[in-house]
Write a structure and sequence with these properties.
With about 200 residues, the protein is an alpha/beta fold. About 55% of the residues lie in helices and about 10% in strands. It is built from 8 helices and 5 strands; from the N terminus they run βαβααβααβααβα.
Length: about 200
């Protein structure tokens, strides 16, 4: 099985991926943040590096999906290939930080790649308000995230909501992060686990 965790920057995807992988014995598959050669450059000059960054993510996630399906194991993935094309790339294009030519090129490549892979068996979407996202971003203290603007986070959140409302590729579980602290509260984590069980195994 392929489980995927989606959500805005700071929503808690990596934390939930770790916790669920430990609970179920699933193999975690994390976003390649530390080894990404474009992230620092991107946050310093978004217009120059937006296309390069998005192509890097697209390539990386396409390879991840191929590996997940080949492995024969149940794998939980931190962030999906769909978020780049539905949220991040169109947002950069709308902000004038990616040219129309580059965006069309990117979208054509995305459409080709996603036609060749299966969507996740379950998508877990972490829904969070801007104050929650800001609080969690500040807590983890990644240097390159210091320059993220509130209006940028807000635009991403709006696009996430639009995408999730129209998501029909498979099973979907929405977890409201404002109401739950699964990172440090065992009862809240149990609530999420019960919802995952219900989606995957029909247990109520």
């Amino acid at each position: 099985m392929h489980i995927a965790v989606a959500g805005n920057i700071g929503a808690g995807k990596t934390t939930l991926t770790e916790l669920l992988s430990k609970h179920y014995g699933w193999v975690p598959n994390f976003e390649d943040v530390d080894d990404n050669p474009y992230l620092n450059d991107f946050y310093n000059d978004m217009q120059r590096w937006s296309f390069n960054l998005q192509i890097y993510f697209l390539n990386s996630r396409f390879n991840q999906i191929l590996e997940i399906r080949k492995s024969g194991k149940t794998i939980i993935q931190d962030r999906t290939i769909y978020e780049d094309a539905e949220i991040f790339a169109p947002n950069l294009h709308a902000m004038g930080l990616m040219s129309t030519r580059d965006f069309k090129n990117y979208k054509t490549l995305f459409d080709l790649m996603t036609s060749l892979v299966q969507p996740p068996d379950l998508l877990i979407y972490l829904k969070a308000s801007i104050p929650t996202l800001v609080n969690q971003i500040e807590k983890r203290g990644r240097e390159y995230e210091n320059s993220i603007r509130l209006d940028y986070l807000r635009q991403l959140n709006d696009r996430y909501e639009t995408w999730i409302k129209s998501y029909t590729l498979g099973k979907l579980l929405i977890v409201n992060v404002d109401d739950l602290n699964f990172a440090s509260n065992k009862e809240d984590l149990s609530t999420v686990i019960n919802k995952v069980d219900a989606q995957l195994y029909g247990l109520f």
